[in-house]
Amino acid sequence: MEVKSRFEVIANLETEKRKLMYEKDNFKTEVEKQEKTIKMLKREIEDREEDLKNFKDKIEEKKSTIDEMIKSIDVNLERLSNISAK
User: Fold this and answer.
1) CA 53 to chain CA centroid, nearest Å
2) Please, where are the H alpha helices in the chain?
3) Alpha-carbon distance values, 21 to 24, 25, 51, 53, 69 (Å)
4) φ, ψ for residue 40 (rounded to 5)?
5) What number is the average pLDDT over the span 71-82?
6) Structure confidence by residue, pLDDT tens digits, 30-76
7) How far apart are CA 75 and CA 68, in angstroms?
8) pTM of this prediction exceeds 0.85
9) From CA 28, how far away is CA 21, in angstroms rounded?
10) So what's the pLDDT on residue 1?
């Protein structure tokens, strides 16, 4: 077994202390990083919800347009059938 001098033991303990202090200080940074990630994800969700709402609005608009086109075609078919019947 290796015998260490008092100075080596003190140096090792100081090194270990610095490592632990560094690790402790990094906890705040890690928490901030996670919070930032969550904020970004929430923002992305909000953006996607807005995109979905806009998409649904466009779909409803297209449905309405298609309904109007179908009505117009029905009117034209009715006219043509009336002309053919005369």
Assistant:
1) 15
2) 6-85
3) 5, 6, 46, 49, 72
4) -65, -40
5) 93
6) 999 999 999 999 999 999 999 999 999 999 999 999 999 999 999 99
7) 11
8) no
9) 12
10) 67
